Amino acid sequence: MQFSYKDKGEFLRAFLILIRKDKNINKSEKQMTMVIGKYFGFEKKFCEDAISHLLENEFLSEKPPVFSSKEIAHFFVKEVTHIMEQIKPMNDEEKEWLLEIAKVNNVNDMII
Predict the structure, then answer these.
(1) Distance of CA 49 to the CA centre of its chain
(2) Which end of the chain has fewer CB atoms at under 10 Å, N or C?
(3) Is 85 strand, coil or helix?
(4) What gap in Å lies between CA 10 and CA 76, rounded to an integer?
(5) How far apart are CA 9 and CA 17, in angstroms?
(6) pTM
(7) 86 φ/ψ angles, rounded to the nearest 5 degrees
């Protein structure tokens, strides 16, 4: 699967928004953000700054990302759900965020 630069950025942005939904960024969420950032080629410092300013960053768009393909959108929802299952149970707001992403990308047949 090929990810465009936009898809990579949207993946990271959507994950960051997800982990700030409960207004508490735990150690595991920070670590997974770094893993995702590294996987997609983002600079370590960029990811660290994004995490450290996440709760007060008013410029981070809350608009659900539209990925370049259903395949990538499906991958995002599936992988992020799996990641969060390993970290902590998702709250209703976090689940709703993933459902919004699934809906705008026409993969809303997914169960979250």
Answers:
(1) 16
(2) N
(3) helix
(4) 10
(5) 12
(6) 0.94
(7) -80, -25
